Amino acid sequence: MSKRKLWIFFLIVILVTSGCGFKDIDKRSFVVSVGVDKGKKQKYKVTLKLAIPIGEPKSGEQKFQLISEEKDTIAEAVALMKSRVDKELDFGHTKAIVFGEKLVKEDMREVLDWFLRRRDIQLVAWLGAGKPDAYTVLSMKPKSERIPSNWLFLAFGNTGVESQYIVSIYLFDFYRHMTELGLDALLPVIEAKKEYLKIDTVDIFKDYRAALRLNTEETKNYRIVAEELSKLEIKVKDKNHEFIIYADRAKADYKIHTPKGGTPYLDMQVKINGVIEEKVQPTSHDKPIPLHEYERIANEVVEKNMLALLQKLQKHQVDPIGFGLRYRSRHWNNQNEWKEWKNIYPQLEFRVSVDVHLQSPGGIQ
Amino acid sequence: MWMGSRYYFYLILLNGFVNVLLFVPGILIDKRYDGALMAIIVAIPIGVTLIYLFVKLISHFPGEGLPEILDRVLPKKVTAMILIYLATAWFLAGAVTLLAFVMITNRYIDPDVDEKIIMLVFVLVVCYVMRMPSSSILYGLEILLAINLPFVAFILLKAVLNNQVHWDSIIEVGTHLFKMPSYELVATATFIFSGYLNLVIFHRVFGEGFAPKYLSIITLMGSMTLLSSFFVPIGFHGTMGVDDYTIPWVATAGAMRLEFFIVERVLYLFLLVYVMVALVSTMVHWNVALELIKSTLVLTNKDRHLKLWRWGIIGGFAAIMLAMEMVIGEPQVYGLARLFLNSRFATEFLIVGLLIYAVRRKKRHE
Fold first, then answer.
1. Which of B27, B84, B87, B247 makes the best surface tag, with the fewest CB within 10 Å?
2. What is the predicted pLDDT for the residue at A1?
3. Nearest residue in A to B106, CA atom
């Protein structure tokens, strides 16, 4: 009796669950990356990169389809594009979202809304600002790329290339930076060159818009302060010496001090561990200077670079590192701390001390 | 055959898991600047004390559930009213869990299927299991927890050790410690510890020698669950942004990536675990509700067709659930969850009070 009941139960379950909700994989178009630009006539120009599945990805041949549409909202643009394709659009594999360089200069909250609200867009999709625009970045077909948009996935995901200049920002991370008090947002700039993509600068946001672009070296220095960075090159140049340090690890700690009556200051300690990778004047047969001499020179130069970056950020009143958040978190007067910080930041003094530790001069003296 | 004490530990653990579906983290995070942290800290001793008192008291009546205990000391009509009230509360707990999970399933697993059909399937599974004897349900609970515990531990570890966590955001919320918590916040936070309440029925399978064991483990695990379900979303989404997500833990699971695993998004692992947790939790709650109603029938001598009644009650549960699914929208589910959490906390004191009274009466008679 009970066995029969069980069978009837399963039959009902099977009957009910065999709905038409699931579409087969060959009836779906996978959107691998989305681009949003400022439209010419309407507000947004949305571009979707659809991967076309091929039998053998190892053959090195990749196929994709690029469609775009202009509309005042992203949802409408996507709906319009759906009328132009034969298969159901699937955003489950959208791992990169590129915003046009011009678009990021405007209030980004509205653009983000669609991405955060949609259930199928991953919160761990990577974001970037496209130069000259998102469409061009998505239309790129770099020679070494075997799967559409894989260049971006490998570059941002750190599973392929690991570059000191590439800042990776997830969708949820960007939104957190946008909303947090005392932590400004930033986006890596993806530049479309003729045959490749270049990601080596960042746009820093203020009041939800891109306000400042850091150059390549500043981007690297930002990463040393904001993240713990490994595998990087540091160029050291003063009047007499010029050499490159390869560091396995670079790390910065900081503390904000507000002495009573005195000027508030930020004490930053940078620790770098590495070896000399290249010297510009080749080793002469004169007596080479000792390693700690190189360390001293490196300390001075890195300190100068760091100070320059911090002061530049301060001058533009942006705070992508989160000094404001640090200040808020270390003070208990929750009512006023944010107002206080707004007064403190413009007059904050930076004190940077750098400790470069060189393990060896490398293979030659 | 009496069950081992460890099964009561599982009941408490289950509530620790299912809190995410009853919007506990969401309610706490919403008030993160207005005393949520203090509520958590206050909730830990309150919760553990209630567990201790309840278990200590009910162990005076080996093998008896609350219906039998109340029947000794209170008039039948009063007992029946209390039992019906409790049954409603337990039904509501299961209903909110199911409604919330159908909502999540529909949004994240398959948006094309009608919510009513998802609900129907879930209700069928739950109704099939909930009529089983209490001991079978406890055995099942043990196995399901054993399957899911590694996954939950993995997700939690992955979250806490993630380098995307901003500790400054967490510390900033920590500096809002000295705020008076409201009743609602304490009621919400103590939910983690309130799994012991299911013993009002399940105590029937625990005999002599049942005692408040594992209290230190319960304190430790309870506080860790509570603190992490509150702080981890803040660490991932910032002190301000965390408030914008409808279900903070779904967003937190969504913000984790597994580079070298079969699935890349932790979200799907999380959903897989929570299918089981949601269903088991509902089964446990509805089994208690069903048994409470059955006891009421026995008390009031309306138990001539008990078997028929049982199917009637189960059918009623299913029908109400489906009707709720059709009528109720997302904001109302949230409201129901708060109603349940708030009334539950007061009910805990009511039950402990009744037990104190019952134990005193029993001692006087001896």
1. B84
2. 52
3. A119
Q: Does residue B238 belong to the interface with chain A, where contact is any CB pair within 8 Å?
A: yes
**Rounded Cα distance, B65 and B77, in Å:** 17
Q: How far is B245 from chain A (nearest CA, A)?
A: 9
* Residues of B with Cβ-Cβ distance to A108 under 8 angstroms: none
Which neighbouring-strand residues pair with A188? A202
Cβ contacts of A12 on chain B, cutoff 8 Å: 124
- For residue A331, which residues of chain B lie inside 8 Å, CB to CB? 175
Backbone angles phi and psi of B118, in degrees to 5: -60, -45
Residue A159: per-residue pLDDT: 79
Torsion of CA B203, B207, B211, B214, to 10 degrees: -80
> In chain A, which residues have their Cβ closer than 8 Å to the Cβ of B265?
122, 124
**Number of separate domains in chain A:** 2
Are the beta carbons of B110 and A328 separated by less than 8 Å?
A: no
Query: Are residues A123 and B171, on separate chains, in Cβ contact within 8 Å?
Result: no
pLDDT value of position A269: 93
Whether A292 maps to a domain, the answer reads yes
Residues A99, A152 share a domain: yes
- B328 close to A (CB below 8 A): no
CB contacts < 8 A, A to B, total: 98
**Residue A286's pLDDT is what?**
63
Question: Does residue A305 sit in the same domain as residue A179?
Answer: no
What is the amino acid identity at position A212? L
What is the band of B339 on the pLDDT scale with cuts at 50, 70, 90? very high
- Closest chain A residue to the Cα of B267, Cα to Cα: A122
Q: What is the mean pLDDT of residues B245-250?
A: 89
User: Regarding the domain with residue range B6-365, which homologous superfamily does it belong to in the CATH classification?
Assistant: Amino acid/polyamine transporter I (1.20.1740.10)
Of residues A138, A113, A173, A118, the one with CA closest to residue A37: A138
Containing structural domain, residue A255: 216-365
Query: Which residues of chain A register pLDDT less than 70?
Result: 1, 13-22, 55-61, 282-288
ipTM of the complex: 0.88
User: Domain holding A324: CATH number?
Assistant: 3.30.300.210
Three-point CA angle A213, A219, A222, nearest 5°: 110
- A121 and A257 both lie in a single domain: no
**Six-digit token pair at A184?**
């400004």
Among the partner residues A124, A173, A328, nearest to B172 by beta-carbon distance: A328
d(CA B102, CA B105): 5
B112 to chain A, any CB pair closer than 8 A? The answer is yes
- Please give the backbone phi and psi of residue B61, each rounded to the nearest 5 degrees, phi first: -120, 70
